[in-house]
Amino acid sequence: MRLAKHLAHAGVASRRAAETLIVAGRVRVDGELVRDPARDVDERHRVEVDGRPLAGPEPRVVYAVHKPTGVLSTARDTHGRPTVVELIPEERRRLYPVGRLDADSSGLILLTNDGALSQRLTHPRYEVPRTYRVRVAGGPVGERALRALRTGVTLEDGPTAPAQVRPVGSGAEELEITIREGRNRQVRRMCEAVGHPVLALRRVAFGPLRLGTLQPGAHRRLGEADLRKLGEAGGPLARGSAAASGPRTGGAGRGL
User: What value does the CA radius of gyration of the chain take, rounded to a whole number of Å?
Assistant: First the structure.
């Protein structure tokens, strides 16, 4: 395993921040100063950061969180604005959001310390679906707009893949949209492209997991069954990561 990845899995820092630590000369492997983030290490190596040996990889955890509007989907904010990580104050391990939701969007977001699982769930290769409930302006959404969303619309960064779309309720001013891409503010841009700007957006499902009755600001730690489902959604490479997480847990995109 690359040294930077090893540090990230041990909860020292994100992979990018770990690379900075290594290049700065703050990491030793078996007593030797190492400045190459790509250096291969395993459990047999003694790794020290600032003279302190690592305790080894920390148990992997995943939380489902109902992000309210106004909360940033980031680990920290330099301007002191509320972040989604602060919604789990009892968790002392370093957590990262899986993908993003804009500050003015709400709904299901996952937090984890498992960088490999996070990458697999958000990588376009695996096409993990995300489902959103959106309330739109412009009156009832007609068949022409629905057909465009279902077949793909052209945005400034290219055409979108077909989406699953269904009207919700009798007024046809609320839609449920499922996409398998993760472009920046994609759902909002798709709706605006067909003449129906989004007034409110809430993610109700991420892969096999649904928001359900989880209240705004609330969270739950995923158990083994949910982790297994996530691993299957993330493809064969993610399944190993999720399986490794399962026995160690004991509890129950980008911006859009």
Answer: 20
The second-level CATH assignment, the architecture, of 129-206 is: 2-Layer Sandwich (3.30)
- List the catalytic residues: 102
Cα-Cα-Cα-Cα torsion 21, 27, 32, 35, nearest 10 degrees, comes to -10
> What are the pLDDT digits (tens) for 115-127?
778 888 988 888 9
Kindly report, residue by residue over 87-113, the tens digit of the pLDDT: 999 887 888 899 899 999 999 999 998
pTM of the model: 0.74
Handedness of CA 201, 207, 212, 217 (dihedral sign): negative
- In the CATH scheme, what architecture does the domain 62-124+209-248 have? 2-Layer Sandwich (3.30)
CATH superfamily of 3-53: RNA-binding S4 domain (3.10.290.10)
